[in-house]
Amino acid sequence: xxxxxxxxxxxxxxxxxxxxxxxxxxxxxxxxxxxxxxxxxxxxxxxxxxxxxxxxxxxxxxxxxxxxxxxxxxxxxxxxxxxxxxxxxxxxxxxxxxxxxxxxxxxxxxxxxxxxxxxxxxxxxxxxxxxxxxx
Length: 135
Known about the structure:
Blueprint: H1 2-8, H2 18-35, H3 44-61, H4 70-87, H5 96-106, H6 115-125
């Protein structure tokens, strides 16, 4: 390894610190390729990542340019739309998701105390053989 590092530094022998210099030069070269800059400047990588993330978020949100808070607003909007679709309602009220989940599970429109337990017990002890049960 030392010989290879020395060759990369165009030296006859490896000296302490050569590997760090080679690594530093390689990373800076890769950052320049990534950013399209000819010369590395401190912060280039951070700025490039920041720009790419903001561009992706703007695209996800259907906007041309990212503004602070766009992602939170978009996620809230999509979550609300998903909840309304799931519940079949036009407006969300606290507990709607739970009520819909219970309704889907029990098959009953109106929940009464014990419905979930009855459904679970019915599923467990109904006498029906599951695909993994032995005959």
